[in-house]
Amino acid sequence: MERGAELGWPGYRVRSVDRWRGGEGASVDDTVAEEAPVALLYNGEPHVVMLATPLDLDDFALGFSLTEMIVAHPGEVDAIRVVERAEGIEVRVKIPPARFEAVQGQGRNLTGRTGCGLCGARTLAQAVRKPAPVTTQLIVPEEALIRALHTIGASQRLNTLTGAVHAAAWVVPGREDLVVREDVGRHNALDKLLGALARRGEDFSAGFVLVTSRASFEMVQKCAVMGVGLLAAMSAPTGLAIRLAEASGMTLVGFARDRDHVVYTHPERLVHLTSVVAVA
């Protein structure tokens, strides 16, 4: 039996389940993360369908529009409207006619699975875009990264309930609070975060992004497009992600956990209290 989300929060459902532990069973309520088909339409025309957590979809639409370079800045998004359908959700985005003409030529009308970053790209040039080099002069003290790793869990409300979603956080050194967005798809969580920051008018050169997932090429690409100077991931980066970060002037950090991390590119942006010791 399934019940609707409490407090009107559409990111999860509560379901009665049989839970077994140590050979003993019990009927309990379990909180399950939701995912739904989310169709992005530009000026009334379908562009792509993504499987996403039906939460913060206005942030998602703005972030996707920016990181996919459909628009150049938030002011080019005239309106975002979220419409619930029986089979899923439509997010209707209104953009200038000139931008819409470019979107029509992209032909990205395939369904994106959960966690899919390049779904719908039809050419190599469309998939592997090279953003302009990151020019931020940001310097991040190691302690700022460690503090964010220690505090991000408290901001992952949906994951605390379900244990099933990724998070992307915005960290500004010296600022206590984190801006966090969550989704079943790591790319979606990042787009939601970047969209939320753009809506607030945040300075993307003033902080860094921390993600609870691996750092794949698309994650680096999205951050670079927005001018983010440092991306830290709790899991590993891919080789293509490392090469793009190196070429883009971005600092890429992987395996960030507690006080441990690996710096793959541009280490000068992350300041440590101790020096690197060469190991034979």
Written overview of the protein:
The radius of gyration is 20 Å and the shape is flat. The termini are far apart. By secondary structure, the protein is α/β, with parallel strands linked by helices. The model is unreliable at 1-9 (pLDDT under 50). Helix 6 packs parallel to helix 7 (217-225) and helix 7 runs parallel beside helix 8. Strands 11-10-12-13-14-15 form a six-stranded mixed sheet, sandwiched between helices. Strands 6-7-4-5-8 form a five-stranded mixed sheet. It has two domains: 36-127, Ubiquitin-like (UB roll), CATH 3.10.20; 140-271, Cytidine Deaminase, domain 2. It contains eight helices and 16 strands. 28% of the residues lie in helices and 31% in strands.
Write the layout of secondary structure elements.
Blueprint lengths: L1 E2 L8 E10 L2 E10 L2 E7 L2 E8 L4 H11 L11 E6 L4 E6 L2 H8 L6 E2 L11 H4 L12 E2 H14 L1 H6 L3 E6 L7 E5 L2 H15 L7 E4 L5 H9 L4 E4 L5 H10 L2 E7 L2 E6 L4 E2 L9
Parallel strand pairs: 4-7, 5-8, 9-16, 12-13, 13-14
Antiparallel strand pairs: 1-2, 2-3, 4-5, 6-7, 10-11, 10-12, 14-15
Helix pairs in contact: 1-6, 6-7, 7-8
